[in-house]
Design goal:
The complex is a heterodimer.
Chain A: E1 5-14, E2 29-31, E3 42-53, E4 58-62, H1 69-76, E5 84-89, E6 92-93, H2 98-104, E7 105-108, H3 120-130, H4 135-148, H5 164-176, E8 182-186, H6 194-209, E9 213-218, H7 221-227, E10 230-235, E11 238-243, H8 245-250, E12 256-262, H9 267-274, E13 279-284, H10 294-297, E14 301-306, H11 311-322, E15 327-333, H12 337-345
Helix pairs in contact in A: 3-4
Chain B: H1 3-19, H2 21-45, H3 53-81, H4 89-92, H5 98-128, H6 139-161, H7 169-182, H8 197-202, H9 207-219, H10 228-254
Helix pairs in contact in B: 1-5, 2-3, 2-5, 3-5, 3-6, 3-9, 5-6, 5-10, 6-9, 6-10, 9-10
Classes of the chains: A alpha/beta, B mainly alpha.
Chain lengths: 351, 256
């Protein structure tokens, strides 16, 4: 049975810091208190997320730490109770039919949460037993996964002494042990070396080719670009863009972004920049409210969205010198999801 | 309810307990048996305690062992598993209602407490002989009291384990378990508190009083003890109360 994922207007407000089950950073925006009757601080983690993920799709949630990615995964995996809204795996309401849903899903949480009282093989075997697999099937699957994730030589050791990367690989193997229809991977490649990351991508693609739905969260552009068929970019608990990586990149005016810094502020120069061939949009700090990076760039900076990159620089320099304004710094960003994030939020999406 | 998952969860706990068998045994039996040896053997042989103290002491030691084992077996793993590492997540994601995971913990803790309680009788008897006057008039009452005590210890462990963080483990022993043991009529019968009338009433809120007195009433009824029926009622109430609190706290810890 193929199963997709659906959410409708999910909201989550924490009245105490979210435990590690919800994972994620703690940089949530704090909602203003509504009068004196509510002394508890309210932390808005999700503010109306609606998603529709088809069966057999690799879907990515992209966003910075604290954007609400892990809370979304937490709600979809029965681990976080939504304040409002609904979520479904296949046709099953996640909150109302938890046991049915838990059979359909495999979950890799952001932080490895292995059972430290067991060896690597025992972790897989007991996981299989929880899902009712018979002992022969359990042993067969455990061996296959230990080989696939290159853990065979440490299989009978306690996991307490494992490195972070090994724990992460074992967590992913464990989530696949009962062959779930939907796999949730919360920042799966965090802490993995580049080689293992490639191995993981290969395994994810293989798993997807068997018709499985995969939802992964990441703040790594390259990973989102390489793996995901569709992406939702979320920030401050809101869905700010949705589409294929190609569509999303195309939605940035021009595609190229030139971040400029001048010696002094000159509205006239900024107006003239607009007239250069290939320039689609010029933004200044005053356009970008809630801009976290505004202090670093100062008031003399401008973001130019254009359909060409390097060839514009000399023209910009000429314009600046003709107006007696010094061009202090130029940074060219090629079409990427990073630009998209910058375009929508005015903030950079850094690892 | 999914029996296969429930049995697999029990299997996991049994596997881990088997792996930690020797330290667990030391933890459970060493202190009570040393106490039995010093107070029941050394003090009695040297004439500081009357000979019948041996028989009076044994049910109290049994109650301590059971409560300590049950609380330890349930609370300690839970405190650890709900910490930062969230080792319990895998089991929370197993295809069974979350409450059943808590009940599995209680089931396993009850079993361990029963084993501990029943093992103290022959061990204590071996250390104290001769002169232990066990008088098992109603095996059924004894079985019921023992079961209720074991259940109370495991439910108490669930409630404590889900209400405390790792930093408070020391506090749990010094503020909860130690006063419970000393004011739990374990080393003396409840009637011995007659000279302290206020204290005698206050200790009635301590569930261990009913455990000790119940075991005393069914194992060595020749000594004064609380009515066994009152013990049944009190222990049943405490079992239900701690199970209720434990389940509620477990849900709070498990789902955010």
């Amino acid at each position: 049975m193929l199963a997709g994922i659906r959410t409708r207007d999910l909201r989550k407000i924490y009245t105490s810091p979210p435990p590690s089950a919800a994972g994620g950073g703690f940089g949530f925006g704090v909602a203003p208190g509504r009068g004196k009757k509510q002394p508890k601080p309210q932390i808005v983690a999700l503010d109306g997320i609606s998603l529709e993920i088809s069966p057999g799709e690799i879907f990515g949630l992209l966003g910075p730490n604290g954007a609400g990615k892990s809370t979304t995964v937490g709600i979809l995996t029965t681990r976080v109770r939504p304040t409002d809204g609904q979520a479904w795996i296949g046709e099953h309401d996640v909150w109302a039919e938890q046991v049915v849903v838990k059979r359909l899903i495999g979950v890799v949480q952001q932080r490895p949460n292995l059972d430290f009282s067991l060896t690597a093989r025992e972790i897989l075997l007991f996981h299989g037993a929880y899902f009712g697999l018979n002992s022969e099937e359990r042993a067969k699957r455990a061996d296959t996964l230990l080989d696939r994730f290159k853990l065979r030589d440490r299989a009978d050791q306690m996991v307490r002494g494992f490195s972070g990367g090994m724990m992460q690989r074992l967590s992913i193997a464990r989530a696949m042990m009962h062959d779930p229809q939907v796999l949730f991977l919360d920042e799966p490649s965090a802490g993995l070396d580049p080689q293992t990351r490639l191995l993981l991508w290969e395994i994810i693609r293989e798993y997807n080719q068997r018709g499985k739905t995969i939802l992964l969260t990441t703040h790594n552009m390259e990973e989102a670009d390489a793996l995901c068929q569709r992406l939702a970019i979320i920030d401050h608990g809101r869905n700010i863009a949705l589409g294929t990586p190609r569509e999303l990149k195309a939605s940035v005016p021009g595609g190229y972004l030139l971040r400029l810094r001048f010696g002094q502020h000159s509205p006239e120069l900024l107006q003239r920049l607009q007239t250069l061939p290939g320039v689609r949009e010029v933004r200044t700090n005053t356009d970008r409210k809630n801009d976290a990076s505004s202090d670093a760039t100062g008031d003399n900076s401008a973001d130019v969205y254009a359909d060409r990159g390097g060839s514009l620089v000399s023209e910009i320099a000429n314009l600046a010198s003709s107006g007696s304004v010094e061009l202090c710094d130029v940074h060219i960003l090629e079409p990427s999801l990073e630009n998209l994030f910058l375009h929508h939020t005015g903030r950079s999406l850094r690892e | 309810m999914n029996w296969k998952t429930f049995l697999a969860l029990l299997g996991r706990d049994a596997h881990v307990a088997r792996r930690n068998l020797v330290p667990s045994l030391m933890q459970t039996f060493l202190q009570p048996l040393m106490f039995v040896f010093i107070f029941g053997r050394v003090m009695v042989s040297s004439g500081y305690m009357p000979p019948q103290y041996k028989s009076l002491l044994l049910p109290g030691i049994m109650a301590i062992s059971m409560v300590f084992t049950g609380v330890w077996a349930v609370a300690m793993p839970l405190i650890g598993e709900f910490q930062f590492t969230r080792e319990i997540e895998d089991r929370l994601l197993a295809p069974i209602e979350i409450s059943w995971l808590a009940i599995e913990k209680v089931f396993f803790g009850t079993f361990q407490a029963l084993i501990a309680g029943l093992a103290v009788i022959p061990a204590g008897w071996l250390l104290l002989r001769p002169g232990v006057g066990l008088n098992l008039r109603s095996p059924l009452s004894f079985a019921c009291v023992t079961l209720l005590v074991a259940l109370f210890s495991a439910c108490g462990g669930l409630a404590l384990g889900c209400s405390m963080s790792q930093n408070h483990i020391g506090l749990m022993f010094s503020m909860v378990l130690t006063p419970m043991i000393f004011f739990g009529c374990t080393y003396y019968p409840w009637s011995a508190l007659a000279h302290f009338p206020i204290l005698q009433r206050v200790v009635l809120v301590n569930p261990l009083v009913y455990a000790s007195e119940g075991l005393r009433g069914t194992l060595v009824p020749q000594f004064p003890h609380l009515p066994v029926l009152a013990v049944f009622v009190a222990l049943t109430v405490f079992d239900a109360l701690f199970l209720g609190i434990g389940l509620r706290q477990f849900h709070r810890k498990a789902v955010s």
